[in-house]
């Protein structure tokens, strides 16, 4: 334990990240550049999220990590162990008991409170990236609020598929100013972006941090005649019977049988415990 | 009558070399101005300076804005200039690949400017796109095809539709018929002439093709080495060239 500084990063680095976080909170949805460090894991495994978590954690925190909603997948387990080892913080799988939750691709089903911080791992922070390849130009577009191009993408979806087919990383407008990529969460989770908890986004490879402070207005972009629809699979969960949670489709044998189960393992287990 | 565009001693140098020097002219609403000259004579530099793509060293470009009358576009803030660029101005590139989004369908290309100025109704955007594809003689069942699947002439017509959809008042064209074969050129010119007349557009057309200006332009400016060497009514300049270079230019046209 004493081999590492608390939470792995040195204090100067954490200070630098906290400064970026403060700026991000002050300008909701704005991508703040920061000097991302090499972390002992590959890019794409949550290096941004881990750095933000490291800068936020205190010895009293209770830490939870989810990957696609699950507490027991490789990414979640290894990041949880990383902070158990380097920060010695308590960990939990219960959403309601955690004070800091690092997440990849999901927002927990349980409603978050003001005492909690949700840290997202972000692969590509720039919502305009695949529409306008020049970073100088996208920054200018953010600065001048020129977001027509974002709707061109949605237009293409409808023209090609008859509906807005973007199902994850669905672009949102934060506090009527910045268009933001909410990281690849399913669009089902977009309404939950308006939350009591502080939401922080870290992109390690891209060296960007952004934030959505509590109770910030977050609107999913859409057309007047094609309104935003937070869709999900039209099934109840096969394990707990929940009809209002986001479901994973699981193929269970080689004859094509499948089942739909909650992607949030803690939520599903909790419901089954309550029922028993 | 207030000129739509009033250019005063516009100068742009690239280090010690001259891009364009001391260019002044006025353009009135509904008028088409042709700029001709050989390669390297500063035509494109001039056009890019006028359209705000390049920053000139000296001079003024006064544009008669809808809201506040004539204003110097070079002294406008960047957001204002970019707003002009997608509402009252249009820029048709020589290579349609520069002016189109190749990975986005024809409908999306036409709709982009509408969405950029705040259109948020899919049905209306699509209707406008269909209407404009029809006007530039592209079959509306190609609306969901990408420009990469279009021929060169169709791409150029699509670029024109995309630019004119917001009803601009001033169109900048850089060699609009370059790289097209003669029969396609003829159709495109015919189309352009019709659109310009019907919409009452003003346009500045840069080209090295004298046939293009003969058909499209009311007035003509001949450039050489960055300077304007001759100006006048198109027919007058082409039929009775005064400057030695213009005489050479006119006599160099191949007769078939």
TrEMBL record, chain A:
Q: What is this protein called?
A: Alpha-D-ribose 1-methylphosphonate 5-phosphate C-P lyase
Pfam families the record matches: PhnJ
Q: Which domain of life is it from?
A: Bacteria
- Key words, A-Z: 4Fe-4S, Iron, Iron-sulfur, Lyase, Metal-binding, S-adenosyl-L-methionine
> One of this protein's GO BP terms?
organic phosphonate catabolic process
Starting at the broadest rank, the lineage of the source organism is: Bacteria, Pseudomonadati, Pseudomonadota, Alphaproteobacteria, Rhodobacterales
Per the UniProt record, which EC number(s) apply here?
A: 4.7.1.1
This molecule's function is given as:
Catalyzes the breakage of the C-P bond in alpha-D-ribose 1-methylphosphonate 5-phosphate (PRPn) forming alpha-D-ribose.
Query: Catalytic activity annotated for this protein?
Result: alpha-D-ribose 1-methylphosphonate 5-phosphate + AH2 + S-adenosyl-L-methionine = alpha-D-ribose 1,2-cyclic phosphate 5-phosphate + methane + 5'-deoxyadenosine + L-methionine + A + H(+)
Q: Which family does it belong to?
A: Belongs to the PhnJ family.
Q: Name the Gene Ontology molecular function terms of this record.
A: 4 iron, 4 sulfur cluster binding; alpha-D-ribose 1-methylphosphonate 5-phosphate C-P-lyase activity; metal ion binding
Q: Which InterPro entries match?
A: PhnJ (IPR010306)
UniProtKB/TrEMBL annotation, chain B:
Annotated GO molecular function terms are: ATP binding; ATP hydrolysis activity; lyase activity
Is the keyword Membrane assigned to this protein? no
Q: Which SUPFAM superfamilies match?
A: P-loop containing nucleoside triphosphate hydrolases
Keywords attached to this Swiss-Prot or TrEMBL record, sorted alphabetically, are: ATP-binding, Lyase, Nucleotide-binding
Ranges where the ABC transporter domain occurs = 5-250
Q: Which BP terms from GO are recorded?
A: organic phosphonate catabolic process
Q: Which Pfam families match?
A: ABC_tran
Q: Specify whether Transferase is a keyword of the entry.
A: no
Q: What is this protein called?
A: Phosphonate C-P lyase system protein PhnK
Q: Which organism is it from?
A: Rhodophyticola porphyridii
The lineage is: Bacteria, Pseudomonadati, Pseudomonadota, Alphaproteobacteria, Rhodobacterales
């Amino acid at each position: 334990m004493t081999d590492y500084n608390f939470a792995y990063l040195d204090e100067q680095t954490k200070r630098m990240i906290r400064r970026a976080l403060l700026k991000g909170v002050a300008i909701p949805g704005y991508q703040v550049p920061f000097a991302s460090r090499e972390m002992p894991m590959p890019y794409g495994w949550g290096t941004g999220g881990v750095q933000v978590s490291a800068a936020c954690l205190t010895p009293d925190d209770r830490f939870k990590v989810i990957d696609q909603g699950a507490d027991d997948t490789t990414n979640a387990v290894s990041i949880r162990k990383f902070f158990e080892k380097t920060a010695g913080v308590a960990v939990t799988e219960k959403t309601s008991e955690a004070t800091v939750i690092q997440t990849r691709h999901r927002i927990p089903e349980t409603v978050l409170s003001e005492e909690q911080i949700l840290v997202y791992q972000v692969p590509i922070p720039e919502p305009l990236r695949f529409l306008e390849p020049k970073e100088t130009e996208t920054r200018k577009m953010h600065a001048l609020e020129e977001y027509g191009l974002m709707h061109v993408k949605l237009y293409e979806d409808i023209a090609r598929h008859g509906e807005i087919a973007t199902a994850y990383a669905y672009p949102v407008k934060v506090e009527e100013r910045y268009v933001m990529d909410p990281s690849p969460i399913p669009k089902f989770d977009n309404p939950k972006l308006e939350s009591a908890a502080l939401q922080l986004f870290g992109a390690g490879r891209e060296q960007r941090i952004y934030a959505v402070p509590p109770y910030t207005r977050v609107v999913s972009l859409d057309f007047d005649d094609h309104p935003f629809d937070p869709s999900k699979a039209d099934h109840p969960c096969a394990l707990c019977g929940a009809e209002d949670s986001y479901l994973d489709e699981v193929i269970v044998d080689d004859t094509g049988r499948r089942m739909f189960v909650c992607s949030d393992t803690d939520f599903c287990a909790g419901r089954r415990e309550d029922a028993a | 009558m207030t000129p739509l565009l009033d250019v005063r001693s516009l100068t742009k140098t690239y280090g010690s070399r001259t891009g364009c020097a001391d260019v002044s002219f006025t353009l009135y609403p509904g008028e088409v101005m042709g700029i001709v000259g050989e390669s390297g004579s500063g035509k494109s530099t001039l056009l890019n300076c006028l359209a705000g793509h390049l920053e000139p060293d000296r001079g003024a470009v006064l544009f008669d804005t809808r809201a506040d009358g004539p204003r110097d576009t070079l002294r406008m803030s960047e957001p204002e200039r970019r707003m002009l660029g997608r509402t009252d101005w249009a820029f048709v590139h020589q290579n349609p690949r520069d002016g189109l989004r190749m990975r986005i369908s024809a409908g999306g290309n036409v709709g982009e400017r509408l969405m950029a100025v705040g259109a948020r109704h899919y049905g209306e955007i699509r209707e406008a796109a269909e209407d404009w594809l029809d006007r530039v003689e592209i079959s509306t069942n190609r609306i969901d095809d990408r420009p990469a699947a279009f021929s060169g002439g169709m791409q150029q017509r699509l670029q024109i539709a995309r630019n004119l959809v917001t009803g601009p008042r001033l169109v900048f064209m850089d060699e609009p018929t370059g790289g097209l074969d003669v029969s396609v050129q003829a159709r495109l010119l015919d189309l352009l002439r019709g659109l310009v007349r019907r919409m009452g557009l003003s346009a500045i057309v840069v080209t090295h093709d004298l046939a293009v200006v003969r058909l499209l332009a009311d007035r003509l400016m001949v450039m050489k080495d960055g300077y304007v060497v001759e100006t006048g009514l198109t027919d007058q300049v082409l039929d009775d060239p005064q400057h030695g270079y213009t005489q050479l230019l006119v006599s160099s046209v191949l007769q078939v």
